[in-house]
Amino acid sequence: MKTLLLPSGRSIPVLGQGTWAMGENPARKRQEADALRLGMDLGMTLIDTAEMYGEGAAEEVVGAALAGRRAQAFVVSKVYPHNADRRGVQAACERSLARLGTDHLDLYLLHWRGAVPLAETLEGFAALKLAGKILDYGVSNFDLADMREAAGLPGGAAIAANQVLYNLARRGPAWDLLPWCRAHGVPLMAYSPLESSAAEQASMLGAPALHAVAARHQASAAQIALAWLLRQDGVVVIPKAVQPAHVRANRAALDIVLDAQDLADLDAAFAPPRRATPLDMR
Ligand code: NAP
């Protein structure tokens, strides 16, 4: 699996697996853990989760998937903003570690900005890193102004990633946030790369231009949407898939090479940003 370098010098895989909504239905937990294991077998060893997902239930699914193979995985979790004060973040991390059945996270993110001063969260993250409970820390749903502010705080230079909503239909981050992240060596993790909800997904993946490009590559529209993200420097992509066919298709998207005509056709259907726009968020 291709990797990117984090500011710490550690590597992060460019394609991983999301877990939002996993664990919410107990009858599906086994199938979800199997999907994550299949993804790991195929090289998608980065697993992205959060204490918020199913209020811990998604982390339990990840824990089941990791049993016996933790060393292979790159585990990302996120702390709720309301738990992100200096002491709260330690306790939240311990709870996540227990649910995940591991003694450390590869990357721990602030899920979104809340009322707790950022400096306090960064202090908490730094203490967790020193204790070996997390190997890197970062943020999520931070726009350019947030990133600039965070980078200037003590511990801010170590911010290892920013996870944001970024896909073909929501190209805003490409205007200013992605260039800033690239310039500072901070990978941008693209969440909801397939637009997540059925209605929004149908709108993006139903675009005729996407289907035309997909037909040229004997691929699906979803695979082209992922390949479009995966070809961009400094971007990590974390689709969530439970159906085994989806898991396999997502891994195969890494091997699709889009050419200039493909990119021009996609630009014509999904306009690149022409000015700064507020960051979209789920
Ligand atoms: P997504 O990955 O864009 O879309 C997931 C949906 O796409 C599921 O319904 C899945 O179906 C389907 N799918 C997956 N692969 C497919 C394929 N090859 N062809 C057709 N359909 C496919 O949406 P997401 O879950 O919102 O985002 C991905 C991950 O990003 C999340 O799971 C979470 O880890 C993270 N995230 C982070 C934030 C944040 O605030 N930081 C917010 C949202 C999401 P099946 O499951 O049935 O296979």
Q: How would you characterize the overall build of this protein?
A:
The model has no long low-confidence stretch (mean pLDDT 98). This protein has 11 helices and 10 strands. The chain has an 8-stranded parallel sheet. The protein has a domain at 9-196 and 234-241: Alpha-Beta Barrel (TIM Barrel). Helix 2 links the parallel strand 4 and strand 5. It is 40% helix and 13% strand. The chain is globular. By secondary structure, it is of the alpha/beta class. The protein binds NADP nicotinamide-adenine-dinucleotide phosphate.
Overall spatial form: globular
Radius of gyration computed on alpha carbons: 18 Å
CATH third-tier fold name of the domain at 9-196 and 234-241: TIM Barrel
Measured as a percent range, the helix fraction is 25-40%
Strand-residue proportion: 5-15%
SSE blueprint and pairings:
Elements: E1 3-5, E2 11-13, E3 16-18, H1 29-41, E4 46-48, H2 57-66, E5 74-79, H3 86-100, E6 107-110, H4 118-130, E7 137-140, H5 144-151, E8 162-165, H6 177-183, E9 188-191, H7 198-205, H8 208-216, H9 221-230, E10 235-237, H10 244-252, H11 260-269
Parallel strand pairs: 3-4, 4-5, 5-6, 6-7, 7-8, 8-9, 9-10
Antiparallel strand pairs: 1-2
The site of NADP nicotinamide-adenine-dinucleotide phosphate (NAP) has 26 residues, from helix 10.
Quick take:
The protein is an alpha/beta fold and 282 residues long. It has helices at 29-41, 57-66, 86-100, 118-130, 144-151, 177-183, 198-205, 208-216, 221-230, 244-252, 260-269, and strands at 3-5, 11-13, 16-18, 46-48, 74-79, 107-110, 137-140, 162-165, 188-191, 235-237. The protein has an eight-stranded parallel sheet with strand order 3-4-5-6-7-8-9-10.
